[in-house]
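User: Reviewer 2 asked us to show a designed sequence for the structure in our supplementary figure. I'm pasting the structure tokens here. Could you produce the per-position amino acids so we can include them in the response letter?
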């Protein structure tokens, strides 16, 4: 797609508020003809003509289709280029929120010469017109998709340009190094002192470390954005379904005193202290000849292996269950994503609790004491789950990578810098080093959309929703 013709020629239209019944629905238009189309369809209640509307100001009136007459009473607003979201002339109608009205208005606008917008096309135009960089544009989609306060804050921070600033600073440092290397390549016989090896190595290492630190936030960022699966596992009767119900806040799973009650995994999504968490209640793990139960257990083990976190429940009133964890799961596979909850503390004894605690703490696993029926320890467990999932991210506004593309670019950049360091150290010609540095510069630039090709842009924006 050619950028210039793309920007100059066509005018696009889309509902911005989706196909739902609501108090208000918004239809937006962007492009060269946006204000003309508004003028053709909108009959202001006051004296001001559409072409004289102040930018960014609401006007009341009627939306009239030449073919069908009055379609709605509504508000119209025009936003003139370049001070609009897309950087082009824009108009919006704030209508009564019926899908039928929205459809008829979009059709009337199309009859005036606009075409339906592609997904993300408004934001794509904002990017192409320099209203925001690519990482910011992607944050728009994250913000629209944000499910919790934490993901909302991370996306907002990126939209404000927080991530872009860090990326551009790192890229600048590499550009400086690249310039010195170029001079060294171009005028080897001139009086340019060869850049000292150690200075460059140290600088590359600093950039490499910063990238590594950013990449570390990717797991957390993904959890904040997409949520985590937390699997409740343990021996039959440990209280998994009781805990599941207590955490989701309703009697969803069947609880009985009979071991082997839960046969199939059940899941429910909650907002756990700001994180979208999908809790999975599973069939209790034990050796069994029952075919149905065995299938359920197979499923439990699969769920546990795929989870971001496993909460292993132990019935602390039944000390014979002590060894059950190691019988089904290996500590090595779960060390970083396991919490042990000693349930039924209300009917346990201090000796048993201390003994169980010691057994798991010795393996480095955090342990909480719990009673689902007495509601003891639930808050502590929730805090521990949150901490295990997002670690020391104390200030959630902290910079976070949430986007796979960004993570990929950062990984490639770090690898290229790593190779540049190796080349420098082995005394390779500056051309070799320069090649790697250029690659790292390219990868960092791609995050904010410098030199990103149209195909990649189309792929990025096609994931957006219509009207954004
Ligand atoms: N005293 C006491 N009883 C509890 C507690 N939590 C659960 N129970 C009881 O333990 C029994 C088993 O609870 P469930 O939640 O069904 O246990 P489960 O782990 O889901 O069992 P399966 O589905 O068979 O694997 C029920 O009778 C619960 O009321 C607790 O904290 N204290
Ligand atoms: Mg159960």
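Assistant: Here is a per-position design you can include in the supplement:
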């Amino acid at each position: 797609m050619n950028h210039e013709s793309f920007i100059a020629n066509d005018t696009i239209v889309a509902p911005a508020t989706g196909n739902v019944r609501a108090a208000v629905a918004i239809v937006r238009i962007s492009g060269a003809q946006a204000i003309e189309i508004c003028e053709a369809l909108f009959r202001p209640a006051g004296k001001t003509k559409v072409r004289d509307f102040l930018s960014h100001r609401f006007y009341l009136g009627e939306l009239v289709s030449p073919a069908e007459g009055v379609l709605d009473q509504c508000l119209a607003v025009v936003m003139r280029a370049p001070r609009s979201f897309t950087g082009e002339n824009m108009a919006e109608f704030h209508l009564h929120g019926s899908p039928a009205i929205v459809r008829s208005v979009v059709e009337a606008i199309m009859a005036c010469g606009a075409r339906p917008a592609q997904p993300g096309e408004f934001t794509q135009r904002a990017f192409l017109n320099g209203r925001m960089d690519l990482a910011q544009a992607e944050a728009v989609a994250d913000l629209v998709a944000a499910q919790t306060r934490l993901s909302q804050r991370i996306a907002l921070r990126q939209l404000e340009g927080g991530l872009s600033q860090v990326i551009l600073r790192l890229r600048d440092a590499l550009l400086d190094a690249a310039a010195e290397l170029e001079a060294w390549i171009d005028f080897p016989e001139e009086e340019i002192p060869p850049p000292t090896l150690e200075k460059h190595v140290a600088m590359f290492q600093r950039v490499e470390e910063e990238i590594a630190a950013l990449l570390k936030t990717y797991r957390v960022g993904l959890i904040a954005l997409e949520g985590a699966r937390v699997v409740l596992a343990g021996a039959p009767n440990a209280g998994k379904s009781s805990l599941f119900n207590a955490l989701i806040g309703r009697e969803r799973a069947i609880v009985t005193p009979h071991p082997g009650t839960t046969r199939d995994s059940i899941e429910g999504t909650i907002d756990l202290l700001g994180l979208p968490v999908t809790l999975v209640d599973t069939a209790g793990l034990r050796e069994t000849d029952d075919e149905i139960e065995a299938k359920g257990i197979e499923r439990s083990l699969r769920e546990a292996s795929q989870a971001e976190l496993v909460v292993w429940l132990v019935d602390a009133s039944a000390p014979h269950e002590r060894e059950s964890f190691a019988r089904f799961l290996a500590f090595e596979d779960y060390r970083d994503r396991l919490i042990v909850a000693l349930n039924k503390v209300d009917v346990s004894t201090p000796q048993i609790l201390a003994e169980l605690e010691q057994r798991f703490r010795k393996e480095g696993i955090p342990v909480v004491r719990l009673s689902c029926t007495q509601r003891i320890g639930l808050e502590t467990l929730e805090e521990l789950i949150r901490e295990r999932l997002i670690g020391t991210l104390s200030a959630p506004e902290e910079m976070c990578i949430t986007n796979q593309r960004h993570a990929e670019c950062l990984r490639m950049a770090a690898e290229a810098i790593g190779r540049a360091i190796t080349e420098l150290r082995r005394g390779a010609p500056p051309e070799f080093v320069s090649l790697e540095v250029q690659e790292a510069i390219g990868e960092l630039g791609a995050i904010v959309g410098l030199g990103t090709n149209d195909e990649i842009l189309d792929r990025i924006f096609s994931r957006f929703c219509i009207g954004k």
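For the response letter, you might also mention the following. The chain has three domains: 3-132, 149-223+400-461, 236-268+281-390. The pocket of magnesium ion (ligand 2) is lined by residues 240-241, 253, 261-262 (CB under 6 Å).
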